[in-house]
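Form 7-S
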Amino acid sequence: MPRYRIEAGKQIAFSEAEETARDAEEKAWSDGKAERDIKRTIRTLEAEISPRRMREAILGTDSDWLKNKEAEIATERGKL
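Output:
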């Protein structure tokens, strides 16, 4: 199925070069999905470290929660 672009209000079919370039862009985006998912997981894990959790870690009342969370983050970073 051909792709189109709008130029001066008119629909113009992609040239072969434009189709090839767009295919490459889509492949690059698709190939980066795993890395984006890992980074999203890291951000989610880091967001769980609240000031309250930090305070509990400093006081030693977190039962190694922070240590375990940091290990989870390190595991995800190791996948990159």
